[in-house]
Amino acid sequence: VHVAESGGGLVQPGGSLRLSCAASGFTFNLYFMRWYRQAPGKERERVATISASGIVTDYGASVNGRFTISIDNANHTSYLQMNNLKPEDTAVYSCNLYTPFGGHDYWGQGTQVTVSG
Q: In 10 A of CB 67, how many CB atoms?
């Protein structure tokens, strides 16, 4: 299983970015895609979760109302639309693919998001 993030970069406060997470190499059809972030010196924080069907979504309190997660199930790709970005959103954002079949987790390498003006 391969998981890869893209779309990070530098953005000014108040700006927007869209992250993508593409997963491949699996056949199970029940899974969740989750976005996490970790800033220097801080613990990893779960940002958003979406089920493969797209029906179930969940957000961390710090991003609720500003970030939106979506999924293209046919292509096993999730997106994280981040609006009204703040300096405290600066972190490495990582994508996680989780399936309850065996409880397996698969991680991407992460993408850096920097919010600075």
A: 21
Return per-residue pLDDT of the chain as tens, 117 residues: 999 999 999 999 999 999 999 999 988 889 999 999 999 999 999 999 999 999 999 999 999 999 999 999 999 999 999 999 999 999 999 999 999 888 889 999 999 999 998
* DSSP string over 61-115: TTTBTTEEEEEEGGGTEEEEEE-S--GGG-EEEEEEEEETTTTEEEE---EEEEE
The DSSP call for residue 26 is: -
Q: How far is CA 90 from CA 17, 75, 117, in A?
A: 12, 28, 12
Per the DSSP assignment, residues forming a β-bridge with 2 are: 24
- Beta carbons within 8 Å of 35's beta carbon, 6+ residues apart: 19, 21, 46, 47, 48, 49, 69, 78, 80, 93, 94, 95, 96
Query: In 19-73, which ranges are continuous DSSP H helix?
Result: none
